Amino acid sequence: MASDCQRPTDDRSPGLSAVVTVGEVPIADPQLGVEEREAVTEVMESGHLVAGDVTTTFEREFADYCGADHAVGTTNGTTALHAALEAVGVRPGNLVITTPFSFVATANAIRFAGGVPVFADVDPETFNLDPESVRERIEELDETPEAIVPVHLYGLPADMSGLRDIADEYDAALVADAAQAHGAEFHGERVGSIADVATFSFYPTKNMTTGEGGMVTTDDPDVADEVRRFINHGRPLDGDSYDHVQLGHNYRLTNLSAAIGRKQLDKLPAFTEARRENARKLDERLADTPLETPVEPTGRKHVYHQYTVTSTERETVREHFADHGVDTAVYYPDPIHELTAYDYMGTSTPVASRLSEQVFSLPVHPGLDDGDIEQIATAVEELEVPYV
Questions:
Q1: Which residues of the chain have pLDDT under 70?
Q2: Domain 34-261, second-level architecture
Q3: For residue 363, what is the DSSP state?
Q4: Beta-bridge partner residues of 174
Q5: 157 phi and psi, to 5 degrees?
Q6: DSSP 203-224
Q7: How far is CA 139 from the centre of its chain?
Q8: 268-381 — its CATH code?
Q9: pLDDT of 71-119, one tens digit each?
């Protein structure tokens, strides 16, 4: 995409202005084509614009892709996580363990459900929730948590085996925020099928998009039914549409969004392989530099929503990349508990705090070509400051 590309703010992204001038190699480039336009036109011509058959078909296809029994579409990734937490029984005052190294929506969704976020620290290599830190935090609490919410950050699955053991030990629901991890795998299983519930975002910069949208996946039919009621004003699944059996929201995914999603899901395997190939090329070109490149532990398949590196001279390095026509971004510049809305908590997570001062992301999206990769690598080779 040309240099006048816009990087919008989304429900899973840092607080950036709506229009950002970027370099010749943009940090994101949504891949939409004639297939999506034709699918949307078909829905428009049908007159059935809101939730309906197209949505239910997309839900079924997405569940099958993830290896889950059920999937429920929602308006965005935040509402998906909120609905999932409500469905597993998070109620006012319940403690929920999560990561501070994520977009604020992860913690906000916990609070929307009435829960109290409790932040554990992250692994310094994977940037994901550290099971050892989770256990330590639980042992410090006066009560056991109702749920544990890992985030598969930047497209790399968290340590789901370690977190599952802890969740089972304390009878806590394991609810995975997979907003950035469409198609990621943990020991051969896709992340939408590993936790008790997983949630996804389909914002334009994600690995696949519906414009705005989200999805909840689960193998538990009761959880799926609870999500369906909650996102539809608390209406029963069968019976009078003007009966409301519980409190709920209007979080429904539309047929228009689902039409885009179905075509994007068809393209997702190719998108994933392009991201992984771009990451491989970056790994190769950056191997002899002091920049710390992403890891992919044995048994985990990274889908590289972001290609995130670390530097102690981050802003100097980012300025250098900008001068060489390469856009970069910081995801995320502050741990959640250091944000104004959370600074009352007094939490300490030293690893997350350190990483938030050092990480930045380079372009890795499917729109890159070999020339773009060369431009990124050349910028690194010409960097003349100490940057680790």
A1: 1-23, 239, 384-388
A2: 3-Layer(aba) Sandwich (3.40)
A3: -
A4: 148
A5: -60, 140
A6: -TTSSS--SS-EEEEES-HHHH
A7: 28
A8: 3.90.1150.10
A9: 999 999 999 999 999 999 999 999 999 999 999 999 999 999 999 999 9
